[in-house]
Amino acid sequence: MGGKITNLNSLTKTIWQFCAEREIWLSACHLPGVENVEADFLSRNRNSDMEWKLHTHVFKRIIDIYGKCDIDLFASGLNYQFKPYASYEPDKEAAVIDAFSIQWSDIKAYVFCPFSLLGRVLQKITVDQAEAIVIAPIWSTQTWFPQMLQMICEPSFILPNLPDLLYLPNNLDVRHPLRKMRLGVFRVSGRRSKTEDYQRKQEKFSCHPGGIPLKNSIGHIKRNGCHFVTKDKLIYLKQM
Hints:
Layout: H1 6-21, H2 37-46, E1 53-54, H3 56-66, E2 71-75, E3 85-87, E4 96-97, E5 108-111, H4 118-127, E6 131-137, H5 145-151, E7 156-158, E8 166-167, E9 183-189, H6 192-200, E10 225-230, E11 233-239
């Protein structure tokens, strides 16, 4: 009832039992921040490290390549790239609260989510047969990375290695803790016909006798980009 925090769970249980014994019914409702100033401040301060934003000029280059999107699915009033956007918490400016609560099948989405959600995002795109532009680390050892390679439906790119590629709009002095990590932009689809059509157009990988076969986890970034292999096809990521 009180979540994973033991003392809060115990307190919640005590309150619940107190009310149950006296036939008191409890219901939850949203309390505006202006009426709950201290808790609102602590909540926003706690989540400030989730407000990373992609460099505006880099985002504009992405839109120049892929075209405009319908919604910024993982954003807030602080870091959204455009409206409408979906927020992870109550936000009067947001068109949607919780991106996972809506269907993605009829929208072209821009996705820059916490990296821990990428596996769930790819699953949602697959289930909804959706298409999206996804910002993700070129992190080949992650379990979701091979799946994303298989879902690519258009050329994808390595983002510029800028010191402020990711920044906090409310604190420009802070640098992302994983600043050495390289990010990519991936145009992905949950429709197998689109991904298979793209893969058919790619060069087939062939290993010379005695050579070492490439796998999904190999992708050394060079000046002109890098490549991976999925289903015996070479997937190139060019430098943007």
